[in-house]
Amino acid sequence: MRFLLFSDLHCDHDAAARLVAMSADADVVIGAGDFGIQHRGVVEMIEALSPITCPAVIVPGNGETPEELESACKAWPSAHVLHGSGVQIDGVDFWGLGGGVPVTPFGDWSYDLTETEARDLLSGCPDNAVLVTHSPPRDACDLDGTDTPLGSLAIRETIVRHRPHLVVCGHIHASWGRRANIGDSLVINAGPSGTLIEVLELGTGNPASGIRN
Predict the structure, then answer these.
(1) What CATH number corresponds to the domain at position 87?
(2) Are 163 and 128 in contact (CB under 8 A)?
(3) Cα–Cα distance measured from residue 69 to residue 178, given in angstroms and rounded to the nearest whole number
(4) Domain that holds residue 143
(5) Fewer CB within 10 A of the end CB, N or C, for the chain?
């Protein structure tokens, strides 16, 4: 199954147009949050992405709430908004969690979750799924510009427990494009440029078996 991964568009319409073009080579598009900027521009960004016709799995970032994203996606019928929830596409399980985890220092505008809240919303994640989170796990693709790790312990614990084939995240801009492994699970901080990868043998119980660009 071929995936197109992205995160953190932040109202970049040129990036959205590139993703629409790239989606012709994808089976599933995965968006790891932050479509707008501080709750602004979400509807316009989703409208820009709506020509993507293959299934899309997306989560809210800390710049939009789940409700805002679900409302905007009325214009994008092939999109599945996940937040403490999952969907199965062509026999492959996906689970999603949005928001900033742990709570960010950005103030009231930021849609954040505590680690405890995140654990509750991640508790239903199936084994060997594709996990989509806005925030990265602790100590994987989570270093800021001063090399300080800012990722989530709850997300890392979920990866260790449920061994997803692939984890797609964003949020920490200084780590865009970085990859890491937690056990056999590949973690990618996607960023806005778009990354096409192929994941083989999904559903076999063997995480990350045959991942290639």
Answers:
(1) 3.60.21.10
(2) yes
(3) 26
(4) 2-212
(5) C
